[in-house]
UniProtKB/TrEMBL annotation:
Claim: Protein transport is one of the keywords in the record: yes
Subcellular location as annotated: Late endosome membrane
GO cellular component, one term: ESCRT I complex
GO biological process, one term: ubiquitin-dependent protein catabolic process via the multivesicular body sorting pathway
Keyword terms: Endosome, Protein transport, Transport
Pfam family, one: Mod_r
Protein's UniProt name: VPS37 C-terminal domain-containing protein
Length: 318
């Protein structure tokens, strides 16, 4: 059996405290990582998280004792007072399975709190109407609300109603105009009305500006359509001019000129042959034959020489 004297026991307690503090810091870092809007009431000991359930403000308070997390679980409470399977008096969250099975080396407090908030959002707790007005005061005075939120219409109204006597409350319940006047006198209501009026004025101004821009837009659109028609006409002229250009370019190309010279030389040669045949038949006198035949042969040889010269130049260029 191992026996601990006072010195050994002190060493053991110091080691435990060091390990517990390290694990505590891990859990706190997890809590802050999962909940960016968390408010630290007491450093490393007490935190609050605000969220909405059934359009009402709800606050979770997480308290960490000195023995957390190795020997004790976190204590989580909810405000205002409510009815929910996970909540037991006084406002203590105990029904979460992950919280019930909390273990310092296997549990993550950030995920546990995230699961609790998810449950309350999916299955909102039933708020106690009698206790709610009283708890609103404590919630609105909470540092997390003072720093991060603004009053709501329901909160302001409940604060006023909670201060009225039963007779006044009965009168309000029976007189709709009086109740409406009370609501309309609230600063938060007047702020909402002002914001609504500002939005309506802004929308009207934007509509007028849009109508002015519509005329300008239609004018620009008409000019654009005119430009498009002009571009289409210019494009058609360009295509026709391009066709004419290629036709002219083809007609004066070396190959085309050579072909024309070959045909012209052939025509001149045929003409000279006809003149020779006519002379042999005795159809024309010798003087006319010599004049016509020599002229045709001269044209033939000239065209033939040009055709051969053009062919030689084309070969040299290649």
């Amino acid at each position: 059996m191992i026996m601990f004297d006072d010195q050994n026991l002190g060493i053991f307690e110091n080691d435990f405290s060091s390990v517990n503090q390290n694990e505590r810091q891990k859990q706190i870092r997890s809590l802050k990582a999962f909940h960016k809007d968390i408010f630290e009431l007491i450093p490393e000991s007490e935190y609050q998280i605000l969220f909405n359930a059934r359009n009402e403000k709800v606050v979770l308070t997480i308290k960490l004792s000195n023995k957390f997390p190795m020997l004790e679980k976190p204590t989580i409470t909810i405000q205002p007072s409510c009815c929910h399977p996970w909540v037991t008096p006084p406002n203590k969250v105990t029904g979460s399975p992950s919280l019930q099975n909390f273990s310092w080396n296997h549990s993550d407090i950030g995920r546990i709190v995230q699961g609790i908030i998810h449950e309350f959002k999916c299955n909102p707790p039933s708020l106690f109407s009698a206790a709610y007005a009283e708890n609103v005061l404590s919630i609105d005075n909470s540092p997390i609300l003072a720093d991060n939120t603004t009053p709501t219409l329901s909160t302001d109204l409940l604060l006023i109603l909670s201060s009225l006597k039963p007779d006044a409350l009965k009168t309000l319940s029976e007189d709709g105009q009086l109740l409406n006047g009370l609501v309309e006198s609230l600063p938060i209501y007047q702020k909402i009305v002002k914001e609504r009026d500002d939005l309506e004025a802004g929308n009207a101004s934007l509509a007028i500006q849009n109508l002015k821009l519509k005329c300008i837009l239609e004018d620009v659109k008409a000019k654009l359509l005119t430009k498009i028609d002009q571009i289409s006409a210019l494009n058609e002229d360009f295509v026709n001019s391009e066709i004419k250009y290629f036709q002219l370019a083809d007609s004066i190309s070396p190959a085309s000129i050579k072909l024309k010279l070959v045909r012209a030389a052939s025509d001149a040669e045929l003409e000279s042959d006809k003149i020779a045949e006519a002379f042999l038949d005795g159809s024309i006198p010798i003087e006319s034959f010599l004049t016509s035949f020599l002229a045709c042969r001269q044209i033939y040889h000239t065209r033939k020489a040009k055709e051969e010269r053009l062919g030689s130049q084309s070969k040299l260029q290649l």
